[in-house]
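Can anyone check this?
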Amino acid sequence: MSGSNGYAALVKQRTSGKTKRRRLDDYETPNNVTRALVRHYLGPSFQRPIVKGPILEPACGSGRMVRELRTELECKVFGFDIKKGYDFFKRRGVWKGDTVTNPPYRDGLAERFVRHALKITNGRVCMLLQSGFLWGGKRGSGLYSECPPECVLILPERIYFYEDGRPIKSQFFNHAWVCWPTRMVRQRGEYDTKTIWVGPEDEDFVG
């Protein structure tokens, strides 16, 4: 499928099958999951300076993550979504700040989101990804070889995403925040990947 078809064409394709996933992969991220990212990577506890914004959230859905980022970081956060006509893959201009999102998954969209974010983003790129995204020889010799993440926040407790303000109980995957540094650091490549275990006893991961 050519890049010119964009995100909207993939959405049409993936909603036409007999899948039980929610339309447009609209799974709202719980606030504590966003807080874990802020406290362990975007905030001052990590080795790099605290984020000052702006932040782009290109698959914001209801805006739950946008609101939590604004509250925690007190910076400008701009949320867009395919449901409002925003096709992330059609964005060509450089984003000077950071990109943070819980990307859609179907039809390889998660990796496409990662790659496009790394292409256009000058700041950090943080993606909430299913834990299985960390494995696989193809991705290991591809994406991770080309541009390894700077930090992986492992969330061992299963996330119960929201729909219409209520937790969805039928969840089957574990997740991790996979984070890349600023473009300048990415281009130099002078960093190692740090792994952080966000345990259930961590006060930052209390719902």
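Reply from J.R.: I decoded it. The chain has a mean pLDDT of 83.
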